[in-house]
Amino acid sequence: MAQNPIVTKMLEQNRTIAANHQPIPFFSELAGLGVKTPNTLILTCVDPRVTPEKFLDLSPAVNPITVRNICGHAGPAIPDIAALDAFMGIENVFVIHHTDCGALSFTEDMIKNRLKERLPEKGEEIDGTVFGAINNLEQSVRDDLDILRASPYIRKELAEKCIGFTYDIKTGLITPVAE
Q: Quick one: which residues bind Zn(2+) (predicted)?
């Protein structure tokens, strides 16, 4: 198997960082250390420019869980949120979409047409799939909050605490989305 230079570089970087790594406690050890399990979940985009740990300056003390997917859409994240809530007891969900998101640059039809060119035998399946294109940033946050609140898998008490924001990648500010 040929060496992939990106993998080689990543492994080298990891070895350098691991040399100073402090062991992270297992979940089973947290209570004994007086550390509460994470109870805030941030749902946001996979865009590498949008890292909540940086734009919210989240320290390990805040300890949120970050779930990321294209545009930070709620639908695909519901199983993750429900499982994490059942396991850890999530108390807050923040949905954060951002300016200049790639999902503002494509349409559902564009993605479907390109996929059907590559996979013509999957045309019907592709037509029935939602790929997450958006045309209004604030409305997409509202739509995702509605999806969370309507899901039978999200506890009513948690659904009521879901809050939406937009993040401006130019100013660095997050703004609550009016509902």
A: 45, 47, 98, 101
